[in-house]
Amino acid sequence: MQNTMQNQQNPGNQPMQGMTDQELAFDLLYQEKALMANISSEVVEGSQSGLRNVLNDMFMQMGQDQLQIFQVMNQKGWYQLKPAQPQDIQTAKQKYQNMCV
Amino acid sequence: CNLSTKDLTVIEDQLTHLATACRVAQGYATQFQDAQLRGLASTVAQHHRQQYDALFQFLNGCQ
């Protein structure tokens, strides 16, 4: 939502002046996520193996960059994740252990 | 390259997105106060430029 609103106010796709580092980092993270989502939806339309290879390489590189951005944000306390509870993990294991037989 | 019309559409769409992403990341690299984030944005911009070049080279190699 934040990213969408900023893009509406900022049609030139340039970073807006006065944004905090946290806001800029979220915006950059969302950009990488959007690029990856776009590639994943388009690579399946490619009929040429060479083109798919180029797109797959791009996707992997973007994933590494996106993870790095997240890790820095996580270190700074800007993007916290809730740890899964051991009981919930055990429940998931039991639920799915024989589902695909 | 035996490109289909869909292939060409995908290439043009991705080149457009990458060009924008490259400019945005370059802009962020100058706006971050934090040196670590400035370096990261600069790296992201460089990678998008390389991705753009790789995809354009693929297109350029086709008739």
How would you describe this protein?
- The complex is a heterodimer of chains A (101) and B (63).
- Chain A has helices spanning 2-9, 21-43, 49-75, 86-96.
- Chain A is mainly alpha-helical and 101 residues long.
- Chain A has one domain (2-7, 18-96).
- Chain B has one domain (5-60).
- Chain B is built from two helices and no strands.
- In chain B, helix 1 packs antiparallel against helix 2 (35-60).
- The model of chain B has no long low-confidence stretch (mean pLDDT 92).
- The interface between A and B is medium-sized, with 33 and 35 residues.
Task: Give the topology, please.
The complex is a heterodimer of chains A (101) and B (63).
Chain A: H1 2-9, H2 21-43, H3 49-75, H4 86-96
Chain B: H1 5-31, H2 35-60
In short:
Chain A has 101 residues and is mainly alpha-helical. Chain A is 68% helix and 0% strand.
Describe the structure using short key phrases.
heterodimer; A: mainly alpha; 68% helix; B: 63 residues; elongated
Structural class by SSE content of chain A? mainly alpha
What order do the SSEs of chain B take from the amino end to the carboxyl end, as H and E?
HH
Mean pLDDT of chain B: 92
Number of domains of chain A: 1
Low-confidence stretches of chain B: none
Our count of helices of chain B gives: 2
